Amino acid sequence: MRISIAIHGGAGTMRVADLTAAMTDARHEGLRAALRAGWSVLRRGGSSLDAVTASVCALEDDRLFNAGHGAVLTDAGTIEMDAGIMNGADRRAGAVAGICGPRNPVLAARAVMETTSHLLMIGEGAHSVARDAGLIFAPADYFETPDRRAALDRELARRAANAPDTRSDADRHGTVGAVARDARGDLAAATSTGGMTGKRSGRVGDTPIIGAGTYADELCAVSCTGTGEVFIRYTAAAEIAARLRYNGEAIAGAAADVVAQLATHGGDGGLIALGAVGEPVLPFNSSGMYRGYVDAEGRLCTAIHREAFRFG
Ligand code: ASP
């Protein structure tokens, strides 16, 4: 059975012109570190659920990506993170929304899945589940970085001046996610985000909505990034699963088509997906999407915009 993993660091990429060689290298290294974390789980015979958890934790810990440390800020200057996880074999799932406490929001989503009879929990209730599960908490200032605060300040100034929105994708949004297939052939998906810069406090995006931003069953695993409201309205991840199940489509075509359709409805972004045989697909309609996968030779393949993949 082929083991397989793909990850993304979100569609909120910096403009090509703004990325120095060192900044580009740092982003590739962050993606490779996350791939290594998940791949080593799969190589040891671990589950796809543990692999996506490990990869997403690595991306949450990396300040360059919008999740965990380095999450974007709301219009109130707070950090409110969402995360979701799903195990394809039995369709167990867990999700959290609007949290700022557990150091790794994906672990809080997994705690909801594994220690409660619920699926989606918010705010303080989600914190108490995480606390009961013994998760590590971090103070609010652990999550905030100067770059994210500056992006919010620019956005609030723009709104006050009623100026047109010419922000880079990096200033708008981002997310992290992983999909994996283990040696038993089981699939899993996980996604984690700070959401959209300057979002209204209390807003929840597609990431913790099972079937929108995160989904896994026995046919596919999907993790999305982009304009969350549109991904929810078009049940983006579930739409891919339905095309495979009822239409007999191949994963590559189904995923590319859904991403193209989202674009026509204002849904900027992309997704990563694995089908039942483990072939990764990583389509996006935005200028870029931080992304990576491990190829059949075991090489770590990473890319940011539309350039060729780097092999690490
Ligand atoms: N989908 C995320 C949200 O709407 C943002 C992103 O992926 O860029 O919260």
Give a topology summary.
Layout: E1 4-10, H1 21-43, H2 48-61, E2 81-87, E3 92-99, H3 105-115, E4 120-122, H4 123-132, H5 140-143, H6 146-161, H7 169-172, E5 176-181, E6 187-193, E7 214-216, E8 220-226, H8 228-233, H9 236-247, H10 251-264, E9 269-275, E10 280-281, E11 290-294, E12 300-303, E13 310-311
Parallel strand pairs: 3-4
Antiparallel strand pairs: 1-5, 1-11, 2-3, 2-6, 5-6, 7-8, 8-9, 9-10, 11-12, 12-13
The structure holds aspartic acid.
Aspartic acid binds next to strand 8.
Distance between the termini: 24 Å
Percentage of residues in DSSP E strands? 15-25%
In the CATH scheme, what's the topology name?
A: Glutamine Phosphoribosylpyrophosphate, subunit 1, domain 1
- Any idea of the CATH class? Alpha Beta
